[in-house]
Specification:
It comes from Colletotrichum trifolii. By secondary structure, this protein is an alpha/beta fold. It is built from eleven helices and eight strands.
């Protein structure tokens, strides 16, 4: 789930509401609706997520004891249909997924799911990565699990309740948590409950992409105080999410950004939602973020 589903979470009003596209039996409506808005943050986030996944264990105290035969376990928060998992695990791009779904409008849901299973299986490039998904939309979770994008999925709301026994057990050995659009819907309770369920937070990293209309300060402070996790913002880089759906949405976003003391000139003023990336790491990690993200941040 992303902020489009919960426009009430913005400080201002007049935000586009796309609730209907996030709880369908397949993602065709999702892509059809977001394509005209040039939605792109999953693709923009991918190089940063991949770099963290490859390098983060090198800077932890358990680097020498890592079992390289064991799959890396990633949790995608607000995962919707498993799009991040598709990009991370398969030789696919967001544009190729968009084209795939646009070309299959006449298929039944059953035929679409079967087609997608074949596509993802044939394009699998990272069998060493397992992705768990968290989202409040059960249809989206069901699709992502059935097509093999997610190892397991959980239609739960950690803002209002503790994780289920099954989910808590699955979280125990998660190494990387990613979120590419959910902050504003999820916050303190979700991130705290996830960290509390991880057996060893000295091996836990997070990559959270937060729209500039929202602050991540309360979450980062909590993660440090309760779990010894340090959060740093990636310097020198902003990430386009999508264009605004209306002039009213743009005006509201600009007001939210300026209310946070940020400059919207050349950014939201030009018609785009922008996000910042926050990397959360164990306090004892010796690897510096500059090393992890070398070559990815444009000066």
């Amino acid at each position: 789930m992303t902020v489009e589903e919960r426009p009430d979470q913005f400080t201002n009003t007049s935000k586009a509401d796309f609730k209907s596209i996030y709880n369908q039996p397949d993602p065709r409506s999702y892509f059809k609706t977001l394509a005209p808005l040039q939605y792109q943050i999953p693709q923009q986030a991918l190089p940063f997520v991949e770099s963290l996944l490859e390098n983060m264990s090198l800077g932890t105290e358990k680097a020498d004891s890592r079992d390289f035969a064991k799959p890396r376990k990633v949790l995608d928060v607000c995962c919707s249909y498993g799009i991040n998992a598709a990009l991370l695990r398969c030789d696919l791009t967001f544009d190729s997924l968009e084209s795939h779904y646009a070309s299959s409008s006449m298929l039944s849901v059953r035929e679409q799911v079967a087609s997608d299973c074949r596509l993802f299986g044939s394009q699998l490039r990272r069998p060493d990565v397992e992705v768990l998904g968290l989202d409040v939309s059960p249809e989206a979770i069901n699709y992502a699990v059935k097509t093999g994008l997610l190892k397991d999925g959980f239609a739960e709301n950690l803002e209002i309740s503790e994780p289920s026994v099954h989910f808590r057990d699955a979280l125990r050995d998660v190494e990387l948590v990613i979120c590419t659009g959910g902050v504003g819907y999820v916050g303190l309770e979700t991130f705290s409950r996830i960290a509390a369920a991880v057996e060893d937070t000295s091996n836990l990293w997070m990559a959270t992409f937060v729209l500039r209309v929202f602050s991540f300060d309360d979450v980062s402070s909590l993660l440090e105080e309760k779990y010894g996790l340090i959060t740093e913002k990636v310097p020198g880089r902003l990430f386009r999410q999508r264009t605004f759906a209306s002039r009213e949405e743009q005006k509201a976003a600009i007001a939210d950004v300026r209310a946070r003391g940020l400059d919207s000139q050349g950014l939201e003023d030009n018609g785009w939602f922008y996000a910042e990336c926050y990397v959360t790491r164990p306090k004892a990690a010796t690897l510096q973020m500059d090393d992890v993200l070398k070559g990815l941040v444009r000066e």
